[in-house]
Amino acid sequence: MTTAKPTAPDVAARRARVAAMRARHMTTRAIAAELGVGETTVRRDLAAIDAERAAATPPPAPPRAAESRHPAPPRRRLELDIDDALADALRTLVAAVPGARHTPATYRTAARAAIRATADSIMEAQAAIAADGAPSGRAAAPPARQTAPVAP
Fold first, then answer.
1. Which of 80, 114, 74, 77 is nearest to 94 (CA)?
2. DSSP 69
3. Residues 107, 90 contacting (CB under 8 angstroms)
4. Helix segments in the chain, DSSP class H
5. What is the mean pLDDT of residues 38-55?
6. Quick one: 73 exposed, middle or buried, by C-beta within 10 A (0-12, 13-18, 19+)?
């Protein structure tokens, strides 16, 4: 005895019932028992429902680049002559990243990261000083040292 394949309207109606039962947090076994079909059929219906929903929802927008905390214009070029000490510092920064290659692009990235990290530290210190109430975001100057006059 062969079983007749369900028609498209039957499948659509069954999938609608499966979706409703899933919304009530029923298990696949309970859904299959209530509908009189196998668990595999219910799993296939759930997979088809998920695929239809995924196709119907628009893809998420690509993540926006984080806005720079630094108000510098985006297109400025800096050429820098590097002395031995700075070259050693750049090599140290690149070597600290596992798997990083020693290429000009990597050195540029390391230099940019170091400059930004330094600027962030300065900006955080200025914000902390401003929060303490120092005038115009700068720390008050320490009192001048008093020295006794030296006798000749």
1. 114
2. S
3. yes
4. 8-23, 28-35, 39-56, 84-95, 104-131
5. 89
6. exposed
> Which residue do the tokens 């079983």 mark?
3
DSSP 134: -
Tens digits of residue pLDDT in 90-117: 888 888 878 888 888 888 888 888 888 8
Retrieve residue 57's tokens: 């929802």
As a whole number, the mean pLDDT across the chain is 79
139 close to 127: Cβ distance less than 8 angstroms? no
Cα 149 from chain centroid (whole Å): 62
Please tell me whether residue 3 adopts helix, strand or coil conformation: coil
Contact 28, 46 (CB under 8 A): yes
